[in-house]
């Protein structure tokens, strides 16, 4: 049985037999990244995920939403969180059709930008990018069993 809950903040949650999903529409505003982090932290706590998984997930959300915000100056983005089996999938859809770049930031670099996807790669079991007619979806899958 699946129940859909709508709230005034454009969040949608689906609950069914161990899988949960949440959606948050993000407008191109300066506080979008903060809003996404708060939504992820609150939602994942409500779902009862382990604290180390929540902490890693919030970092991944921050990096993916920041990239969408930086590379989609004229369009919205959507954050999706999905648990299934032993994984958490975090995805961000934006309207920028450009492929993601996976820069290899040299160790010890002091650059302020260019390390976000490397951070995502380090925290995720898998991640990738899917392209569509109206933009792309960048996703990462984290284990629900923390490594530490």
- String of helices and strands: EEEHHEEHEE
Number of distinct helices: 3
Distance between the termini: 34 Å
Mean pLDDT: 80
| Number of discrete domains | 1
Strand order of the largest sheet: 1-2-3-4-5-7-6
Question: What fraction strand?
Answer: 25-35%
What's the CATH superfamily, by name? Histidine kinase-like ATPase, C-terminal domain
What does this structure look like?
By secondary structure, the chain is an alpha+beta fold. The protein has a single domain, classed as Heat Shock Protein 90, CATH 3.30.565.10. Helix content is 30%, strand content 34%. The protein contains 3 helices and 7 strands; from the N terminus they run βββααββαββ. It has a 7-stranded antiparallel β-sheet with strand order 1-2-3-4-5-7-6, covered by helices on one side. The N terminus is likely disordered.
Secondary structure layout plus pairing:
Layout: E1 3-6, E2 11-16, E3 19-26, H1 32-46, H2 51-71, E4 77-84, E5 87-94, H3 116-123, E6 126-132, E7 135-143
Antiparallel strand pairs: 1-2, 2-3, 3-4, 4-5, 5-7, 6-7
Helix pairs in contact: 1-2, 2-3
Task: Give a quick precis of the structure.
This protein has 148 residues and is of the alpha+beta class. The protein has one domain (7-101, 114-143): Histidine kinase-like ATPase, C-terminal domain (Heat Shock Protein 90, 2-Layer Sandwich), CATH 3.30.565.10. The chain has helices at residues 32-46, 51-71, 116-123; strands at residues 3-6, 11-16, 19-26, 77-84, 87-94, 126-132, 135-143.
């Amino acid at each position: 049985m699946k129940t859909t809950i709508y709230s005034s903040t454009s969040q949608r949650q689906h609950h069914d037999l161990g899988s949960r999903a949440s959606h948050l529409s993000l407008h191109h505003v300066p506080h979008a990244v903060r809003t996404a982090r708060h939504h992820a932290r609150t939602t994942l706590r409500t779902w009862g995920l382990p604290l180390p998984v929540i902490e890693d997930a919030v970092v991944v959300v921050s990096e993916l939403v920041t990239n969408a915000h930086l590379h989609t100056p004229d369009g919205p983005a959507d954050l999706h969180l999905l648990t299934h089996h032993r994984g958490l999938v975090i995805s961000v859809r934006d309207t920028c059709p450009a492929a993601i770049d996976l820069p290899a930031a040299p160790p010890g670099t002091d650059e302020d930008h260019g390390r976000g996807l490397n951070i995502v790669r380090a925290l995720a079991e898998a991640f990738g990018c899917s392209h569509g007619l109206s933009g792309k979806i960048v996703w990462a899958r984290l284990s629900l069993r923390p490594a530490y």
